[in-house]
Write a structure and sequence with these properties.
Blueprint: E1 3-8, H1 12-30, E2 34-39, H2 43-55, E3 59-64, H3 66-79, E4 82-87, H4 93-98, H5 104-113, E5 115-126, E6 129-133, E7 136-140, H6 141-151, H7 160-169, E8 175-181, E9 184-196, E10 218-224, H8 228-238, E11 249-254, E12 256-259, E13 266-269, E14 272-276, E15 279-292
Parallel strand pairs: 1-2, 1-3, 3-4, 4-15
Antiparallel strand pairs: 5-6, 5-15, 7-9, 8-9, 8-12, 9-10, 10-11, 12-15, 13-14
Helix pairs in contact: 1-5, 2-3, 6-7
Length: 306
């Protein structure tokens, strides 16, 4: 039995989290947990609720999209709290990367039987502030796709990311990315530069298949210029992680990455804007305590030759 505070975003997943909340409450009460349920009105409100949960000695469980998971995780890492996660959004990429089941009943069971492990936390720092994240911080094509996702009213679930990617390709023009990777220059003309902590985004895309949230490092994935048709044909390969074997894609590891480009992009991570350019992305090794399945370690990485 654990003392839990469920911080839930009722609007996540087009209202999916709110619809599933009664079943989640019933499962957690049946398991004997001391449960407090606190719906959140905004990301700022989620900060307050997470801090209150830590002050009350509770494990704070985030239920919603990856944005609220990253936001709550950032608060808990600063306060020394423990995070539990239940899938409730469209993509649920943190759960996919961490081995937390997509099935809600099985995910609730992890809160009873799971073990607490330290995971790395990414941090994006720019003129707009300092924002922690768990997934992937990216600029370029990815930024334009996320802008379209935020504005989309299409009800496609996690497939909205693929739909918006295909829509964005048609009008894309290559950008010049001027970055540094642990102080070494990385200049790329092309589609995107992404800095990965978890390795997954976009509803199951394995952008950085060798990434680990327990290695104290970030995976930097850059995609150089290629034709629109070839890029479109590469997209399905991202779901298997085999795109990293194409000549346009380069993967390297780092602790600190400075992002800049020849035109303005917002930096997105965990489905939300987390900064503007220029932006510095760094890693805090083992900064967040998370309840994870005992029998499921981080997904086995696919070799990328790094």
């Amino acid at each position: 039995m654990r003392r839990l505070q469920l911080v839930v975003n009722p609007s996540a997943g087009g209202g999916r989290a709110a619809r599933r909340l009664p079943a989640v409450e019933a499962a957690l009460h049946a398991a004997g947990h001391d449960l407090v349920v606190t719906p959140t009105r905004s990301l700022e409100h989620a900060d307050e609720l997470a801090a209150a949960g830590v002050a009350d000695g509770r494990v704070v469980v985030a239920m919603g999209g990856d944005g609220i998971v990253g936001r709550v995780g950032g608060v808990l890492s600063d306060l020394g709290g423990t995070l539990g996660v239940l899938p409730g959004g469209r993509g649920n990429d943190f759960c996919r990367a961490a081995g937390i089941p997509q099935d809600l009943a099985a995910a609730c069971a992890v809160l009873s039987s799971g073990q607490v492990r330290p995971l790395d936390l990414g941090v994006a720092s720019s003129a707009t502030g300092r924002t922690p994240f768990l997934g992937i911080a990216s600029i370029g094509f990815d930024s334009d796709v996320q802008e379209r996702v935020l504005a989309s009213r299409v009800r496609l679930g996690a497939l909205v990311y693929l739909y918006c990617s295909l829509r964005t390709i048609t009008g894309w023009k290559p950008a010049e990315f001027r970055c540094t990777v642990d102080g070494a220059p990385l200049h790329v003309r092309g589609w995107a530069v992404a800095v990965s902590n978890s390795g997954m985004y976009g509803g199951g895309m394995r952008l950085a298949p060798a990434a680990s949230m327990e290695d104290g490092a970030l995976d930097v994935v850059s995609t150089a210029e290629t034709g629109r048709l070839r890029f479109a044909r590469m997209l399905p390969r991202v779901f298997q992680g085999t795109h990293v074997h194409t000549p346009e894609v380069t993967v390297q590891t780092a602790r600190t990455v400075e992002l800049a480009a020849n035109r303005p992009f917002r930096v997105f991570a965990d489905g939300d804007p987390v900064g503007t350019l220029p932006c510095t992305v760094s890693v805090r090794p083992g900064a967040l305590q998370v309840i994870l399945p005992r029998a499921v370690a981080a997904p086995a990485p696919e070799s990328t030759g790094k």
